[in-house]
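2024-03-11 09:14:02 INFO worker-7 job=invfold-0412 stage=load source=structure_tokens
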């Protein structure tokens, strides 16, 4: 299903932009303009939702993330950072 014509919709105040598609992976820029804890996004085209494309995002406060990784040993943090760096290069 080609979803390039669809745009993310949320009950939150968001700004979105379609960035492109590669090998059936679609990239969108999503900017939450206000703090919002409703983590449901729906792809819509002309007010019609693509029901099979419901996705949820998990939101965390910066402090919660800090607490989660505070007790990790340096080696574990370096491994996590290396994995994230590989994923970032893949997206580029």
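2024-03-11 09:14:09 INFO worker-7 stage=emit residues=92
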């Amino acid at each position: 299903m080609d979803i390039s014509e669809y745009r993310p919709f949320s009950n939150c105040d968001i700004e979105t932009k379609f960035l492109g598609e590669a090998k059936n992976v679609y990239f969108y820029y999503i900017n939450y303009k206000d703090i919002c804890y409703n983590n449901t996004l729906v792809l819509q085209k002309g007010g019609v939702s693509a029901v099979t494309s419901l996705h949820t995002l998990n939101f965390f406060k910066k402090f919660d993330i800090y607490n989660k990784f505070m007790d990790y040993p340096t080696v574990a943090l370096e491994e996590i950072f290396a994995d994230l760096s590989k994923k970032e290069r893949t997206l580029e």
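2024-03-11 09:14:09 INFO worker-7 stage=report msg="The chain has two helices and six strands."
2024-03-11 09:14:10 INFO worker-7 job finished
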